[in-house]
Amino acid sequence: MILQHSPAVVVTQLEAIQGDITCLAVDAIVNAANQSLMGGGGVDGAIHRAAGLELLAACSKLKGCATGDAKATPAFRLPAKWVFHAVGPVWRGGAGGEDELLAGCYRRCLELAREHHAKAIAFPAISTGIYGFPSERAARIAVATVREHAPGAEVELVKFVCFDGQTYSIYQRLLQAG
Ligand code: ADP
Description:
alpha/beta; binds adenosine-5'-diphosphate; 6 strands; 6-stranded mixed β-sheet
């Protein structure tokens, strides 16, 4: 008799929450970083302040990161285990490949999750702050990319962390729409 081992099917739970991503005790939080990876404003500044100077030292060894890509470091003083530093595109009207670059951030973070055995991961709304990407368009890309790639990366829980109420209601609507 031949025993067949079918691969486990991972069902990923997606949820939206409103709050500060630096407080979450998940396996990995995602940072909306810039190409230098040496810290900045917005969520990047909050993550570096909360994680401590060791994070900056770890980032300095990574030699930057291309737009649409992401790199991992430990999370040091944060309650999470890992920080995946993703570099989102600056919004320039939408004809410069911004959608694909933003999708690339989410995809690469899910690949990093798989490599680091991170089952629960939290994303901020990458590019929608200082980088000016329209919130609804960015949220649609985020949700679609995560829905497509999270199960294959064996990620079980994805939290979309919204800093403001408007972003939160966009994500809630998109997630309810299934
Ligand atoms: P970007 O340069 O990629 O636009 P920002 O940090 O300016 O990055 O903004 C990305 C998103 O992160 C925005 O929606 C912003 O409101 C949000 N944000 C800022 N601080 C935090 C935080 N502490 N936790 C979660 N989200 C945050």
